[in-house]
Amino acid sequence: MLKKLSAFEGIKGPIVTIVMDGVGYSPKEEGNAVAQARKPYLDSLMKKYSHVLLKAHGTAVGMPSDADMGNSEVGHNAIGAGQVYEQGAALVAKSIQTGEIFKRDAWKEITENVRAKKSTLHFLGLFSDGNVHSNIEHLKAMIAEAKKEGIAKVRVHVLLDGRDVPETSALDYVGPFEKFLDELRSPEFDVCIASGGGRMKITMDRYNANWKMVELGWKTHVLGEGRYFANTTEAINTLRAETKAIDQDLPPFVIAKDGAPVGTIQDGDSVVYFNFRGDRSIEITRAFEEEHFVEFDRVRFPKVTYAGMLQYDGDLKLPKRFLVPPPAIENTSGEWFSKAGLKQFACSETQKYGHVTYFWNGNRSSKFDGETYLEIPSDVVPFEQRPWMKSAEITDSMIDAVASGKYNVLRCNFPNGDMVGHTGSLRAATMAVEAVDLGLARLLPVIDAMGGVAIITADHGNADEMYDVDKKTGLPKTNKDGSIKAKTSHTLNPVPCILYDNVTGGRLSLKEGSWGLSNLAATTANLLGFEKHESWDDSMLLIK
Ligand SMILES: O=C(O)[C@H](O)COP(=O)(O)O
Ligand SMILES: [Mn+2]
Ligand SMILES: [Mn+2]
């Protein structure tokens, strides 16, 4: 049980954590949608209330190095668990480096299956070195190992990124990768790319937001249905010229030879989904694993030996076979607040719903006792067209939940800074931040009225840098037509953390220090009048 604090009895009203997804802090104004947004409420909070900056990237959130940006999974894991675990990106890299991955049963089953049946080994996943969902180096290591182990035929299905890496960088990955395959290819080893498409068009949907994407991916990778091209470079060049889309939004393509697709997925094949992150892996995994599947008509359901890079959901055991064990995230704040008998409320719209539930609770999909979840359905539109997203509805629901008096601890996520930040539109991203500001201005007074306190923070940066800046010159890069190259990915910047307290008469503040997202759980525990769990990182709270 969490012990009661002796120095402080705890706030009587609700403690509310508000995550402004993708709203990082940078002193640089140019290309910074957060700084440029008209957000009088948030600006006044930064003047009036105790605040600090939190590290939200690199080793502070369990990434392999400090060159790695943060992301929603590692960010919400750290906030919810109050601790830093080595995350998927680091675990897989290590397992490959030590060779452990190839000694485990999952890899052996995948490879023995294709050797025994003389069938094809397929790799499907996000094709970049973004290190958020996947890393192309992991893919290359597995292909090289497959050749070493005498596998005869490999097909690769590539989901183009442009979201965790520069927006039109796909050919920077395709070129060197084709060369890598050319060097491996031999009469005994037949390897090539078989299909692909933009990650926001096919396969990588999350939280059941848009199953049509997964259906289109299935048609592309499994059935080989779609527009044929002779190779990936031709596909990308043609589709870019026709659609003007950035990589993440490019339509699907099928690589064909002599009028037939080169790599459909058939009975007896093995399939490795090489993304390590779960949210955008669960739906396609279900399509490959579920015997009775109702989300769309698969037309053909090949009997394959399937493995995910990691297990994506420990409660649902999805997938059954995985190449590397996921981090065992234990003693989350959700669990211990539940054991303390507290009532918890979590809310976001579909796009971030799993962030405040599944990621928050250490990648568990089931609830702890006393937890209530509310999902507001997201629009299925390009978010630069609706930068306000469902911020008003999230605010309405949070106001109702706070005012109901039923909950001791509440959490919500405003997706705007992140989802609109990923589109690369600076104009829309400033509006996204402004929409969050409107929400805060409505919600926080209700928390006052209930005698509560709020922590306003974020999980990583995104909208704080909307220009792709040349590291050497410090100037924004430009496109061929002279326009500024947009940055669609997250940033390495810290995030704000504001303690909004109008109820203790100034007794509480945040200590100066070198803090990260993993310090939030202990801080919340203290606000509730409890000591932190022994495994959590320290509280930032100073109590007078
Ligand atoms: O999945 C995505 O949309 C991006 O790769 C990462 O964004 P998130 O970590 O904020 O979800
Ligand atoms: Mn996020
Ligand atoms: Mn994001």
From TrEMBL:
Cofactor(s) the protein requires to work: Mn(2+)
Domain BPG-independent PGAM N-terminal: start-end pairs: 92-313
Enzyme class, UniProt record, top EC level: isomerase
Gene3D superfamilies: Alkaline Phosphatase, subunit A, BPG-independent phosphoglycerate mutase, domain B
Domain Metalloenzyme as annotated: residue spans: 14-532
Any single Pfam family the record assigns to this protein: Metalloenzyme
Pathway: Carbohydrate degradation; glycolysis; pyruvate from D-glyceraldehyde 3-phosphate: step 3/5
EC number: 5.4.2.12
Keyword set, alphabetical order: Glycolysis, Isomerase, Manganese, Metal-binding
Record-linked InterPro entries: Alkaline_phosphatase_core_sf, BPG-indep_PGM_N, Metalloenzyme, PGAM_B_sf, Pgm_bpd_ind
Catalytic activity from the UniProt record: (2R)-2-phosphoglycerate = (2R)-3-phosphoglycerate
Family from the record: Belongs to the BPG-independent phosphoglycerate mutase family.
Descriptive protein name: 2,3-bisphosphoglycerate-independent phosphoglycerate mutase
Biological classification of the source: Bacteria, Pseudomonadati, Fibrobacterota, Fibrobacteria, Fibrobacterales
